Predict the structure of Luciferase-like domain-containing protein.
Amino acid sequence: MVDAPLPDPALVVLVGPSGAGKSTWAAARFRAQEIVASDDLRAVVGSGPSDLGASADAFELLDRIVAARTGRGLTTVVDTLGMEPERRRRHLGLARARGLPAVAVVFETPLALVRHRNRIRDRPVPAGVLAGQVRRLVDAAAQLRSEGWDQVRVVAPESAASPPPRPRSAPSSRSHDFGVILQVSRFPWGEEPLAWLTDIARATDEAGLQGIALMDHLIQIPQAGRAWEPLPELWVTLGVLAGLGTRLRLGPLVSPVTFRPAGITAKAAATLDAITGGGTFLGIGAGWWAREHAAYGLPFPSPKERLDGLESAIETIRALWAAGTKPYAGQRVSLPETTGYPRPAGAVPIVVGGTGARSLRVAARLGDGCNVPSDDATLERAIPLLRAECDAIGRPHEDVAVTVLDVPVVGRDRDDAWARVERLRGRAPAGTFAARHHAGPVSDHRDRYARLFERGVSSVFLALPDLSTPEDVLALEPLGSS
Ligand code: UTP
Ligand code: MG
């Protein structure tokens, strides 16, 4: 592939995950002195290129070198992951101030190739961190378009290995959290829990779905199965999924605040986000099922107290995730300090589950999203209510995402869909059950989701009422990003 010439002198900022080939690309085109690499500077001020403890010093130096070189109108190639928008903008500002053309170079190296190169390195980056970087690249690539670069150039080497998995979603469709996430609410894993979880997660990734959400209950709920079926603990199971190194976003939908003190939930979600390199979401709600609380010896206070608890929980969680360690004195909660490390790698959206007026108010005031059932009647009522609550406090509607839980019967064709209805409906009349679960082939669901997205829904949490094997998940591929 022959590149068009780059402007020279210029500021050139590289953007790509570890092992994408950034340093190799730069070395083939620029003099060593023109390249400012965070790895090299870590080796200068620390013990070596992967001395992460030396990062702060290295980046301080890097910024000074970029300022000095661009200030002199010299070609400067910034060789870092390039995924921090603020640093990119600072560097772009320096180039602008000096009238230097500014070029961003995005490395869309296939994931399989990046993984392969990473594995054979001296000090491989952990698989989860690498997956997080690849995920953040999708966001960065979308942001770059609006940052004001003179050129955004894409370097996309051919994969030597097998075809890469599809990207999580096309940058063009990512104005916000658009997509379909598999909600797993039943765990028919037979004798092999770990193998089943692994296969389901890999199939979800392969189908191009955005992530996996886990229900948080202590006993299997009647809507999803029978009480003696396995229902694993939420955060242990998310930890297993996190270790698989997929690009899936992970989180609970919905975790009742009655199960754990809010600080513990903040800690768990921050840890999950840190070890996966971002992409965690946190669905929380007031809890509803008395039986599981009684069985596990947990208090189950009145609805009002639980909703009060939901508000306090969100405050506590946000305080512990925020930068710094200072004391926190909020509306409902006071904490003598807010020391919480690891911090989440990115912004973890808090999605408030619940359709009641008070839940929607909590979502509008304190949440990043609200999650409601996907049926028309609920949406017709909930979306205007949510928006009215936003208006009441002057919050833009788009700040609070509407997500839905959808429980579709998905068949290979109409016949198969009806066979599933017959198996699943219990005592419900087939017609009622089929309508409630939109029984049909996957193409019907794709059209239905397109209408939901048009209506302002930003994510669909899809729970298969008869999820059993990875093939069930692979069949959802038409709903994944293409
Ligand atoms: P680089 O070291 O160039 O990647 O290549 P990078 O993007 O700068 O990675 P970080 O961010 O510093 O971690 C990674 C490996 O891939 C090989 C290089 O030789 C190196 O071992 N590589 C790179 C190729 O084999 N072919 C290429 O076209 C590019
Ligand atoms: Mg490098």
Notes: The two ends are 25 Å apart (CA to CA). The chain has a mean pLDDT of 92.
